[in-house]
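not sure who needs this but someone in the group chat was asking about PIN-like domain-containing protein from Thiohalocapsa marina so here u go. i didnt clean anything up, its just raw.
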Amino acid sequence: MTHYLIDYESIQPKQMGDWIDEASTVALFIGPQQHRLPFDLVETMQALGARGRYIRLERTGKNALDFHLAFYLGEGVGQEPEAEYRVLTKDSGFDALIAHLQQRGVRVERMDWEPTPD
């Protein structure tokens, strides 16, 4: 199982159909100032059903989206420690947390680009 957590303020994938499979989930974190999403992205999220979810922040604040994403990452690791986690963001502020989780045996990485199909 691979869980993708996408910082939509940082990375806006145009589509995900090529790199999301039946064993993947996607959490799309959307800032309060973001009001439009590309149709192809929405269509892919809809096709995921319960494996895809939008997490829209209600309030602005310094690093608000980052804190939300970190919370959901920790929650996921607590529930499914054997899964893989991919954080899609250009924000290198996640690197310390990711290194800490990796030292604890969690399979997690930060990706600052849109993945390509395997």
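also The chain has a mean pLDDT of 91. if thats useful
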